[in-house]
Amino acid sequence: MQTVLLMGFEPFDQDLVNPSWEAVRQLDGVQLEPDVQIVARQLPCAFSSVGECLIGLVEELRPAMVIATGLGPGRSDISIERVAINVNDARIPDNLGEQPVDTAVIADGPAAYFTTLPIKAMVKAVREVGIAASVSQTAGTFVCNQVFYLLQHALAGSGVRSGFIHVPFLPEQVAGTQRPSMALGTTVAGLQVAVLAAWRTLADVKEAGGQVS
Ligand code: PCA
Q1: So where's the catalytic machinery, residue-wise (predicted)?
Q2: How far is the CA of 193 from the centre of ligand 1 (A)?
Q3: Of 138, 145, 140, whose CA–CA distance to 47 is shortest?
Q4: What is the mean pLDDT of the chain?
Q5: What is the DSSP letter of 169?
Q6: pTM here?
Q7: Catalytic pick among 81, 128, 172, 207
Q8: C-alpha distances in angstroms, 204 versus 38, 123, 125, 176, 211?
């Protein structure tokens, strides 16, 4: 049996739930293929402890593919991240009260790592089941970007493909505001399709979809 490690975050800021964890926990144990199983785990929203947790999970589970997910406040769709940058710049404190500003994730590390997931194929597959998805060109500069960078750094050259997906708020988190959201069932279905497409697609498809600015 091979393992796909799928991670979501604990709640942060003012929120009592994090849709990334609520969604991935529903996919724990799901059989992607006869010999491939999703294992879902939660990550702490803390700059100082999340890296150790991430590496611990990779060492314990020896996954064949790793995808981390997080809430992207303001995102309106399943956002497949292209690139992690070597910058921490927190607008708000994390769950341990830390707020790094303009520091490196890894001192002297490369400026950025690209995802090793087939992002265009994943977007295409999610859209094909009628769920909104797009490639995102930035995972921000908070804990999610840090985890994404550490993940790509840890697995660089290993042959284990990895990446990051941001998901929108749940409708109940933004009721009474104009902020976009996605129903939990839709997020779960979108993530499952994205993960399956990532598993099955070794060479990404070529499809226009970038941004002018
Ligand atoms: N989203 C935050 C951190 C945890 C989460 O779910 C982010 O985008 O950095």
Answers
A1: 81, 144, 166
A2: 21
A3: 145
A4: 97
A5: B
A6: 0.98
A7: 81
A8: 22, 11, 12, 39, 18
